[in-house]
Design goal:
IS30 family transposase; nucleic acid binding; alpha/beta; transposase activity; RNaseH_sf; 3 domains
């Protein structure tokens, strides 16, 4: 169940029941809240005045104002655009929130921010809209409690790390090992993107458009693109650790293709597809409105790149090299 803050109407009920001397356990049960939530609410937001002790107590309006002020402090990055710009620039440069916060303090800046505030903003509504989580060294779909986080290894387990990938994949000595990535475009043009797959030995590529970045949609499209190939032509795919690839287990279960994952923030470990993406960007720059690009245009771009001679293939084209490998499998 999603976390839900207490609102003014609930605080009024707490106020009334405290006045009626109802025990905290009964207040919690009546409101459908955990007893710890009620204890914490009373402790945080009760009014205390040493000079007027008879006014000390829990008052709903005072509690609401204190809670609102506390949330405003947590939203420092929304209130201070200049500070937000400095934080976002450094996130995009690959800095972690802890590095950003530490550097601001060491520079003696008049206004600083702690790393937890940066994380909270990254996973806030504004941060999700700006896709700030993509710039974190270890990004997650959402921010969870520090004491109850699901280990990242459960999504991308250590045994799937690129260091455990067979040597023949690294050496490109065997046909059928691929690298996969997403080409992302300007946020204001929507969630549409283009997925790229490149076979490591022949450099043969496949491009297809996605209308969103959900892992289910991506894996459905990817398996459709790969399923027509012989099993030996789709042994494995190497991805980065983007959340869009978190459905990787379906590849093994449904089409028998293994998945391997780069280290966090190490896209160079799948350099074949990164190199291909640079070539494709000549035709699909970041400013492209992908939703308006027909599928046949994406196929035509891919075909043009696959029919361009490559020095690493002895001036064969990727298409020629790929066809030769497929013929050997028959």
């Amino acid at each position: 169940m999603a976390h839900r803050e207490l609102d003014l109407s609930e605080r009024r009920k707490i106020d009334d029941m405290i006045r009626a001397k109802v025990p905290v356990d009964e207040i919690a049960a009546a409101m459908g809240r955990h007893r710890s939530t009620i204890y914490r609410e009373i402790g945080r937001n009760r009014f205390v005045d040493p000079e007027l002790p008879y006014l000390t107590g829990y008052w709903s309006i005072v509690a609401q104002n204190k809670a609102t002020a506390r949330r405003a402090r947590r939203r420092k990055l929304v209130r201070l655009p200049a500070l937000l710009d400095a934080v976002v620039d450094r996130l995009k440069a690959g800095w972690s929130p802890e590095q950003i916060a530490g550097r601001l303090r060491s520079e003696g800046q008049a206004v600083t921010v702690c790393h937890e505030t940066i994380y909270a903003h990254v996973y806030s509504r504004e941060g999700r809209a700006a896709e700030l989580a993509r710039h974190l060294p270890a990004r997650r779909r959402q921010r969870r409690s520090r004491f109850a986080r699901r280990p990242q290894g459960l999504v991308f387990p250590p045994e799937r790390a690129i260091q455990n990938r067979p040597d023949w994949v690294k050496e490109r000595s065997v046909f059928g090992d691929w690298e996969g990535d997403l080409m992302i475009f300007r946020r204001e043009h929507g969630l549409a993107n283009v997925a790229s797959l490149v076979e490591r030995k022949t450099r043969y590529a496949v491009l297809f458009r996605n209308n969103n970045r959900s892992t289910k949609h991506l894996m459905d499209r990817l398996m459709t693109a790969m399923a027509a190939l012989p099993q030996a032509a789709r042994r494995s795919i190497t991805f980065d650790r983007g959340i869009e690839f978190s459905g990787w287990r379906r590849l093994q279960q449904e089409i028998g293709t293994e998945a391997w994952f780069c280290d966090p923030q190490a896209p160079w470990q799948k350099g074949t597809v990164e190199n291909f993406n640079k070539r494709a960007r000549r035709y699909l720059p970041r400013e492209t409105v992908v939703a308006e690009v027909p599928d046949r245009a994406v196929v035509a771009i891919c075909a043009q790149l696959n029919n361009t001679p490559r020095k690493c293939l002895g001036w064969q084209t990727p298409t020629e090299a790929f066809r030769a490998e497929i013929m050997r499998l028959r």
